[in-house]
Amino acid sequence: MIEVIVEDRCTGCGDCAEACPSDVLRVGGGGKAVIAHQADCQTCLLCELYCPADALFVWPEVDRVIGVTAEQALASGQLGAFRRDHGWGEHAVTHTNQHWRMGAIFERARLLAIETAAAQTPSNTARHEDIR
Amino acid sequence: MSEPLSLATDVLVIGGGLAGAWAAVAAAQAGADVVLVDKGYCGTSGVTATAGPGHWWVPPERREAAVADRVQRALGLGDPEWMRRILDLTWTSLPKLSAYYDFSTDEAGQVQYRALRGPEYMAAMRAYALAAGARILDHHPALQLLRHGDGSIAGATGLSLRGETPWTIRAGAVVIATGGVAFASRLLGAATNTGDGLLMGAEAGADLSGMEFSNYYTPSVASTNMARSMAYSFARWFDADDNELDIPNGPDVTPHLARALLRGPLFCRLDRVPEDIRAIMPQVQPNFVLPFDRMGIDAYRDRFKVTLHAEGTVRGIGGLRVDDQDCQTAVSGLYVAGDAASRELVTGAISGGGAVNSSWALSSGQWAGAAAARRAKVTGTRADALVIATGQAGLSPRRKAGDFDAAGAIQAVREELNAYDKNIFRRGEALTASLERLDGVWRELSDHGQAKGRAALRLREATALVAAGRWSKAAALARRESRGMHRREDAPAPDARLASRQRAQGLDHVFTRFETPPAQAEVA
After folding, report:
1. Which of A4, A40, B231, B335 is 20 to 30 A from B498 in CA distance terms?
2. Same domain assignment for residues B270 and B385
3. Distance of alpha carbon B325 from alpha carbon B327, whole angstroms
4. Same-domain check for residues B100 and B188
5. What percent of chain B has pLDDT over 70?
6. Is the Cβ–Cβ distance between B224 and B268 less than 8 Å?
């Protein structure tokens, strides 16, 4: 769930509020993004991806607020990690999109499963088209 | 306070996920004025945006074999002609995205079109739809359809979440692309997938198909929604005493995991994931690694607790029934695309997974969008004609409006539809009990449910969840056999007489009927 927006980093651009699929965020009176409907957050992480200032911090648990502070978020080293791994903005050159390798990874898993089960039944043939 | 929005357009697309975006592109390219309304934001809404779909991407010379294999696995409910159609359109469509999506190139210099990463795919689709000329209204959920006196579709009304003001859009044709229904599970990206389009379509007179196939499940780190499951194809599974369980990974892993979870906590080790794959995982699936990193779990060394999230019809199958080649429903002027439609034609009784479902979204979206544009050109928008609002339960209570507990209704749906013992291992008695409970919720809701502003949206979502839950239970009850993902513990074998698709419809009274079985009935 969205836990905190680091006010010092937020530029008030409103990109996070626009992008949130559950309409959780608003740009508040002070010109900074605020969490307006926290309980509606679905923990999709996409606000972090759309924030060019790396000001938002989402905790992976979906059912409760754990109360992360701005200081804790900054100290975690995780602010902006998701945008970095996606290679958005300034990370485009260093973090290229390797998603296309999924097919080959599934194939490795399938072969490993066959190898592992060789002594038993040869039924472990996951078809990667069926798995996300 | 902003003014209520009222406008007229040729084509209205409801939902801006993968199918809706493709529909908007196709309708706009066919020369129609297009408005796309999204409950959230076209680009992050829907289950594609948080995932990374492959497509059913098969070169022409291998297609007949792929279709033959799929027809066999469809267990009597698939249609090879529809499979060929989506294979063909997928092959010609994805390269057209090159201006908006930065396709990767493999070591041999081949451009890789098959699999696209979710956030980038949907950002590309938004850009593509806008470039084609579609107008996008984000944070504008639809609440009900409008129809003409002759029964054909006239538009929709809804709510603009900013300012909580109503909107009315009149259209010559409407495409429903609201996604599958995840029955309020914690599935990644599916919080807005509450079945709104199924409810709106049924109220307007459309019927559904395949709603019994609504029980696909995906593993995830406990207490999170992170249903990116690729790494679990390398998993080893353990019980609370750290005994390794004999669970083979593969397409049939779910019942094993569910049985283990019914016995107690279930744990996982991913220590068999090869080192080179670990190294690139953050750039393959950035969201998969995030919960581990933040919660201080070493994904490839530590044992961690897992759960199974219900996907409902998302990677289940059911939805509004497609009535012709253009993806029109049984209602004139109402089209359906993506997971809001039944995918039995291309998947049969087993999940289409990410690949077939994405190809279906891409294809059905374009067919629906182009056909809606053609229709709107012929009929016009008829924006001055008097129209009938079709929305009922949750909008206009039959009796005195009262405090209906929408959160309680959603919890009832969650309990009845997602519990492993009720939904994976099905039995007639339990299905009947679930249906009775949901019927009770429905009566209460349609008698007294009404709300304003944002709460009105939540109430309509609850209404749609309850309606979809009832169609699902009724269809599962009537299919007294096991076929594909539908598993009846009290009828564990397939019944050749039931080798046909099953339709569902009705609001206050839900009923189902089987289509005539095909001449060549499956040999059970």
Report:
1. B335
2. no
3. 6
4. yes
5. 98
6. no
CATH number of A2-91: 3.30.70.20
Residue B350: both structure tokens together: 């087993």
Decide if B232 is inside a domain.
Answer: yes
Provide the 10 A C-beta neighbour count for residue B415: 14
Amino acid in position B71: V
| pLDDT for res A114 | 87
Would you say residue B260 has pLDDT above 80? yes
Q: Does the reported pTM lie above 0.90?
A: yes
Which residue's entry shows tokens 């012929």? B378
Q: Look at the block and give the residue holding tokens 């699999």.
A: B115
Do the domain assignments include residue B395?
A: no
The answer to whether B125 and B20 are in contact (CB under 8 A) is no
- Is B233 in the A-facing interface, judged by CB distances under 8 Å? yes
- Minimal Cβ distance to A19: which of B44, B228, B293: B44
Residue B517: pLDDT band by 50, 70, 90 thresholds? low
**A98 reaches B (C-beta below 8 A):** yes
CATH code for the domain of B370 = 3.50.50.60
The residue-averaged pLDDT of B197-216 equals 98
In a domain, B519, yes or no: no
Please state, in angstroms and rounded to a whole number, the distance separating the CA atoms of residues B436 and B237: 36
CB pairs under 8 A between A and B: 186
Rounded-to-integer distance, Cα B491 and Cα B159, Å? 45
Q: Are B213 and B468 in contact (CB under 8 A)?
A: no
Q: Which distant-in-sequence residues (6+ apart) come within 8 Å of B278 by Cβ?
A: B300
Q: What ipTM, to 2 d.p.?
A: 0.95
CA-based angle B258:B212:B458, to the nearest 5? 85
Residue A121: per-residue pLDDT: 57
Regions in chain A scoring below 50 on pLDDT: 122-126, 128-131
More reliable by pLDDT, B522 or B30: B30
B286 closest CB neighbour out of A20, A85, A110: A85
Residue, of B305 and B353, whose pLDDT is higher: B305
Residue B479: band (very low, low, confident or very high) from pLDDT cuts 50, 70, 90? very high
How crowded is residue B374: how many other Cβ atoms within 10 Å of its Cβ? 19
In A70-89, the residues whose Cβ lies within 8 Å of chain B are 76, 78, 81-82, 85-87
Mean pLDDT (chain B, rounded): 96
Q: How many domains does chain B have?
A: 3
Q: How many CB atoms lie within 10 A of CB B392?
A: 17
| Among A62, A78, A130, beta carbon nearest to B186 | A62
Start-to-end CA distance of chain B, whole Å, equals 63
Cβ distance of A60 and B49 shorter than 8 Å: no
- Res B219: pLDDT: 96
Closest chain B C-alpha to A6 CA, distance in angstroms: 17
Question: What are the structure tokens assigned to B322, written together?
Answer: 């497609």
Mean pLDDT over B213-218 rounds to 96
Q: Which domain holds residue B493?
A: 406-514
Nearest Cα neighbor of B390 from B143, B195, B207 is B143
For residues B416 and B423, what is the distance between their CA atoms, to the nearest angstrom? 8
Rg from Cα positions in chain A: 20
Q: 3-state class of B265 per DSSP? A: coil
